[in-house]
Design goal:
Elements lengths: L2 H11 L4 H10 L3 E9 L8 E10 L2 E6 L13 H9 L4 E3 L1 H21 L10 H9 L2 E3 L2 H4 L20
Antiparallel strand pairs: 1-2, 1-5, 2-3, 3-4
Helix pairs in contact: 1-2, 3-4, 4-5
């Protein structure tokens, strides 16, 4: 069974929390862990933190977000944006580069939709902020809950408290 199928099955049977997803994936033999990203305030967006799951397969990191589509929902969306939103999976399973491409495309569509409706684009709907959720330095594993571990920089895979612009 493919990873995406396993994740979908787990989420359907246990809608509760990310820890359950991680535990179930680990019980299926995956190197899965809870990740908590954190980013500092910048001139263009507020500070924040976000939790998601990652799985290491053959040295490659796959990101899992069990509530992916909700990150892109906006008020008073145009028909075009609603159709784009319909193409997004509820559960994302994939590599960081694929996720970044999706974020850029969908955030640009959200911007056009909001502008067409005469609405301001809030900072948390801009691509830089949305990318920060998964692309910022993160803590992986049991310490993600306690934040005892030093964050890992996604781009360089180094350990330390490096914050970078996305």
């Amino acid at each position: 069974m493919r990873l995406v199928d396993n994740v979908t099955k787990i989420v359907e049977t246990s809608k509760s929390c990310l820890k359950i997803v991680v535990n179930e994936l680990v019980s299926l033999g995956y190197d899965a862990a809870l990740c908590k990203s954190r980013w500092e305030k910048s001139s263009s967006y507020p500070a924040g933190e976000y939790e998601y799951v990652d799985v290491m397969i053959d040295g490659e990191r796959l990101l899992i977000d069990v509530d992916f589509k909700s990150n892109f929902e906006i008020a008073r969306a145009t028909k075009t944006y609603k159709s784009i939103l319909q193409t997004l999976p509820c559960i994302f399973v994939g590599k960081a580069d694929r996720l970044q491409r999706i974020i850029i495309l969908v955030c640009e569509a959200a911007k056009k939709s909001l502008k067409k409706k005469g609405l301001h684009v809030p900072p948390w709907r801009r691509a830089e902020y949305v990318k920060s959720k998964w692309m910022s330095p993160y803590v992986r594993g049991p310490d993600a809950e306690d934040d005892k571990q030093e964050p890992v920089d996604v781009l360089t895979k180094s350990v330390g408290s490096i914050v970078f612009g996305v």
